[in-house]
Amino acid sequence: ALSSERPILIPPHIVAQCSHNGRTACMALLLWHYGHKMATPLASAIIAAALLSVMHLLHGASGFATHSDSMPAMPAVVIVDPVTDWRHVLETCNSLVGRVIVVQMPDVDLPDKFQSFQPTSEALIEQGVHVVQMYQRDVFSTTRQLQLIAKDENLDLKGVIPLSEVAVEVVDLIASTLDLPHNRLDLTTARRDKGLMKDAVSAHGLRVAKHARVDSMKSTEDTMLKLSLHYPIVLKTPSGMSTSDVYICMDEQDATAALEAIVQSLGGPDGRIESHALLEEYLVGTEFAVNLMAFEGSVRVTDMWVYKKTASARYQSADICN
Questions:
Q1: Is 243 left (phi over 0), alpha (psi -120 to 50) or beta?
Q2: Is the pTM of this model over 0.85?
Q3: pLDDT digit string (tens) for 180-221?
Q4: Does residue 279 contact residue 233 with C-beta atoms inside 8 Å?
Q5: Three-state SS letters, 22-73
């Protein structure tokens, strides 16, 4: 590896499959070639040292391989619908866990601007991960496939992680079937539907914008009267993301156009056809975004931002808070 012009890396999941025979003391190493050249011999040496460290951690100081009958299961995580910064996530998971299985959702009819962030199966395979295709949001078939992979490859699945809004609605169902940590299943819909989300927040005593579901201008006008709302109002798709299909309506003409764009359109931001739009009270003031990480009752704030948006509810800028 050190004398080659191309770096030769050995992924941990390949190392874990190496076998040791007591009589022949045979050790097999399968080499994984990456198509770019290494700049310096020092860089190659660092890679070799890192691989030795990984193999040391995986198999103990006494040797690289163990007997196949007593080989412990390799920890693995499942990543669902990787988008945007997926390379960083895979690199981190590979370094911390050892094996990654990626579930793609290729038949979800997302808008082009979202599809452009999704990696191809070939790009994922080049990263050394196992790729599973999930069709029609079929949790049963996907979970069964994950169980069979874990059995055949001696993997100990540790968790299921969503990397997109669309994945949020399926990961808890997959994780619960695999008996892995997951969020409450009775709130699965509230994590994607903005109306049910507000209901869940309100149930815990926090104030939320007035809201209701509407499907026409008549129901919009009736609801505005019932909730004592006046223009401007907000009309949005219930299960949107990244302010897609969110409209600030200044008058009836704006509201009519928004309803036509949301209700019974060819497909919303998550690929579904919506029968209703979500009518919301327009809140005036500075908008803050607070990002949290929560696990087993522990909640931590990771970062906080001040958003500035255009009149059409599109992101204009975001400044991180001190």
A1: left
A2: no
A3: 999 999 999 999 999 999 999 999 999 999 999 999 999 999
A4: yes
A5: CCCCCECCCCEECCCCCCCHHHHHHHHHHHHHHHHHHHCCCCCCECCCCCCC
